[in-house]
Amino acid sequence: MKALVLKGYGAKQTLEFTELACPAIKSNEVLVQVHAAGLNPIDNMIPKGMFKPILKFQLPAVMGSDLAGVVVQVGAAVRRFKVGDAVFASVFDMDRGSFAEYVAVPESAVAHKPSNISFVEAAALPMVALTAWQALHERLQLKRGQKIFIPAGAGGIGTIAIQLAKQIGAFVATTTSTGNVELVRELGADEVVDYKKQAFENVLQGYDAVLGTMREAELEKTFRILAPGSNVVSLVGPPDANFARARGMNVIMPFLFSLISGKIRRLAKSRNANYSFMFVRPDGQQLSAVAALLESGKIRSVVDKVFGFEDALEGLAYLEQGRAKGKVVLQMIAD
After folding, report:
1. What is the structure's pLDDT at 160?
2. Dihedral sign from CA coordinates of 11, 16, 21, 27
3. Angle between helices 126-133 and 284-295 in degrees, nearest 10
4. Is residue 285 part of a domain?
5. What are 156-177's pLDDT values in tens digits?
6. In DSSP terms, which residues pair with 105 in a beta bridge?
7. Cα distance between residue 178 and residue 20, in whole Å
8. How confident is the model at residue 138 (pLDDT cuts 50, 70, 90)?
9. SS3 label, residue 25
10. Is 185 helix (H, G, I), strand (E, B) or coil?
11. In this model, does residue 13 exceed pLDDT 70?
12. For 144, which of 112, 173, 206, 230 is 20 to 30 Å away at the CA?
């Protein structure tokens, strides 16, 4: 099978197409023929070595996390899926990647694809939908009537996080450029700050939660808009000691991450707020809950641009420009 493989980090980073053997499945796995694979910003960060201390890859490694496709083989212990089922999943932080013609996926990570959306639309969702779901429900424990700030509302995370926050019943503020104001309002944003005209920290106040998708300098500004007792979850960093411990990293890393996150944690303490860094985890049950919302028309997938599998490097370069409205997706097989 054809796969896009990472062969080296940093200055020596090499991403190239390679022919690999089709993966053999374990008893608790399904083999999926990939019809489409979603691109995520981390797909550009990993080859640069930015997550090398956290994510362990055995090079050469197949890249990619999100996929949608059709089950072509099931393991002996699999009960929820059969050959021919249309599915979608995330394989992030596993020893495999989605930029390939076939992927072996644990049953626990798979969900049935909503019948009313395409494989491309489904492939756009797993990482961002699971990230938003876990941040909103587990870390922030967002409740009806609370105010949440979700910056970069027109981006991959923002477009789905706004919708999921509105399903909870929260009041949502976001930032975007002038040309995307209408899009984020359609997705449910209650207050929209055009960052080309205003600084969000001068406009917003009294927020209970922040879903941080920005770098540290911008993240620091969010503490100016918080109400006492609020929660901030960052998807970009800095990582904290609890994150290192949860991943079972060596004893040096909690100390190092504590130092790295010191300024942010002090800012949080000064506002009587809580700060944490999170990594998404694959979860088929949560993805099924997202699928139910999609099938009922309560939320939708937002796709900016689709590239053929052979144009994957071009797609990654486009994504890295940071201008996508929603997600960028690779299409291996036409719907």
Report:
1. 98
2. positive
3. 100
4. no
5. 999 999 999 999 999 999 999 9
6. 30
7. 45
8. very high
9. coil
10. helix
11. no
12. 112
Q: What is the CATH number of the domain that holds 178?
A: 3.40.50.720
- Cross-sheet strand order for the sheet of 171-176: 191-194, 171-176, 147-149, 207-212, 226-234, 274-277
Start-end of H helices in the chain: 42-45, 119-123, 126-133, 156-168, 181-187, 216-221, 241-246, 252-260, 262-270, 284-295, 312-320
Angle between helices 262-270 and 252-260 (to 10 degrees): 60
Instruction: Provide the residue range defining the domain that includes 243.
Output: 128-277
Please write the tens of the pLDDT for every residue from 92-120: 999 899 999 999 999 999 999 999 999 99
DSSP SS3 for 221: helix
CA angle 96, 5, 70 (to 5 degrees): 50
Number of Cα atoms under 13 Å in the Cβ half of residue 131: 29
The reply to whether 85 and 156 lie within a common domain is no
Do 273 and 137 lie in a common domain? yes
Residue 30: both structure tokens together: 């399904």
Q: Is the pLDDT of residue 6 over 70?
A: yes
3-state class (DSSP) for residue 21: coil
pTM, entire model? 0.95
